[in-house]
Known about the structure:
By secondary structure, chain A is an alpha/beta fold. In chain A, 34% of the residues lie in helices and 27% in strands. Chain A is built from seven helices and ten strands. Chain A has helices at residues 41-48, 74-79, 96-107, 111-124, 140-152, 170-185, 197-201; strands at 2-10, 16-25, 30-34, 56-61, 64-65, 81-85, 158-162, 189-193, 206-211, 214-219. In chain A, the strands form two sheets. In chain A, strands 6-7-8-3-9-10 form a six-stranded mixed sheet, with helices on both faces. A four-stranded antiparallel sheet of chain A has the order 2-1-4-5, covered by helices on one side. Chain B is an alpha+beta fold. Chain B has two domains: 29-70 and 178-315, no CATH class; 78-171, Alpha-Beta Plaits. Chain B has eleven helices and four strands. Chain B has a four-stranded antiparallel sheet with strand order 2-3-1-4. In chain B, helix 2 (12-36) packs across helix 10 and helix 8 (173-215) runs antiparallel to helix 10 (230-273). The longest helix of chain B is centred in the C-terminal third of the chain and has 44 residues, at 230-273. The two termini of chain B are 22 Å apart. At the A-B interface, helix 2 and helix 3 of A face helix 1, helix 2 and helix 9 of B. Magnesium ion binds next to helix 1 of chain A.
Amino acid sequence: MISFDHVSMRYPDGFEALKDVNFELKDGEMVFLTGPSGAGKSTLLKLITMIERPASGQILFDGLNLNRVSNKHIYKIRREIGVVYQNHRLLFDKNVFENVALPLRVIGTNVKDISRRVRASISKVGLAGKERKFPKNLSSGEQQRVGIARAVVSRPSLLLADEPTGNLDPQLSEEIMVLFEQFNQVGVSSLIATHDIDLLDRRKKRELRLSKGTLVSESK
Amino acid sequence: MNQNRAEKKSGFLLRTRLLVSGHFDDLKKTAAELITNPLNSTLSLLLIAVSIALPSIFLTLTTNFMSGLDRIDESPKINVYLREEVSIEEGMTVTRGLLEHPQVSEATFISADEALKEFQEGSNLSGILIALDENPLPHVVEVVPSSLDPLDVSNLVMSIELYDQVQEASINLRWLERLFAISLILKRLVFVLALILFLGVILVIAHTIGVAIQFKRQEIELMLLIGATHGFVKRPFRYLGFWYGFGGGLLAAVITELSVSSLSASVEALAQSYRSSYALDSGGIVGILAIIVVGVFLGVVGASIGVSRHVKEIQN
Lengths: 220, 316
Ligand SMILES: Nc1ncnc2c1ncn2[C@@H]1O[C@H](COP(=O)(O)OP(=O)(O)O)[C@@H](O)[C@H]1O
Ligand SMILES: [Mg+2]
């Protein structure tokens, strides 16, 4: 699904955020990306969504070398990826239904299919009946569920999450993780950045640990 | 992913229909935004409308002015003023004689009394003339030359002035030439004015669109992150520009019509005092459409500039 081959990344100010990173995420695999704040987790995810580009090395996405993808075609890569953000990035002037529908509107799905798939996605994250609510009237756990529904509504082949439980209490975090596992069980490859070690310990998942931009350990 | 592939395969017709309906949605939504954000949009609209209306009004006036001149040019008349002591009978004889002249196509005798009457009807100065005991006007023969060549015309004038009964024959060619020169300058002035104001409209629209984009920054960033193309993200703002141009053009057409028709009354009165009937032509439905088209054009251009400048700032 994803493979990093001697990838380094430098921000415009010269800071080297990733140094010679190598790893592979197999089809259907669920992997945790860990490390202290500032280790480079978000940067690594930004390389996959092509918000940033590597200074050197190669990233393969489904066999496609991302270095060969021009800016004009980045949108095609992004349509294959669902992303969940720590601050969920919901649009507060749109209701739950409209928020979740955005990725489908972007690819031009017809109205009937949008309605069906958005409802399915919303009920999958346990928010059935809250379609007409606005994000500000939801709890933070519910807001994050909306973010997840939006990330999976277009049935992406890869799900990325950047500290999706960062703002949630342990119980809500656990519920969110269970959701990710459910999506993984139906075949969605997932890469989840977190520094919540408790959540990890309870699961037998592979862990990629970053420290100061370097991959320090891969555990099974 | 499988789903996406399946979508890619779905029929071209379906996709075209979706695209069209999507465009239509955007058109509706942006129009709704204009209406629900009344203060800002009204100010911008007014600014746009006035900037389009001003050159339109001037253009209407100058083209009317020029077509008025053309009409005069088609039949320059030589006013032949007869001597005071010439009687009406003699004047008629002179007129018949002038009609025989090879260079004359028409000659009309206007007696002093007729001239006075017409003058009184067509002019506010009639009061002054009534106060005079005697009619100060001479008999006049209006001569239309058969040739419009300035040389022929001035030869004709000279030969008419040789008549004993003629006090003076005049055609003011220089006056005509001057008017033409002035109208040319006016036309250029309108052109330059239009250029400056239209440039202003483009900048206003670009700026207004820029503000709208800043306002939607978060949404645009997110759309790009979930795989929207730049065209998709820019589209609603292009339509916003279209609506500003369309609305501004419509308003400008209304302003132009109102101004021209209010000017029209006084122009007609003026024309009558020159013994001609003349009404301002505002260009009618074609004029209105032209103004709206100009508005839409400026709106679309302004939006393109605003959109490409400001979306580039956002990226990612
Ligand atoms: N836009 C940027 N410009 C310069 N340095 C950055 C930028 N974004 C992040 N960094 C730096 O890169 C390092 C890794 O950041 P990040 O990937 O966000 O870490 P994490 O997500 O693991 O907390 C940090 O030291 C951070 O300060
Ligand atoms: Mg981070």
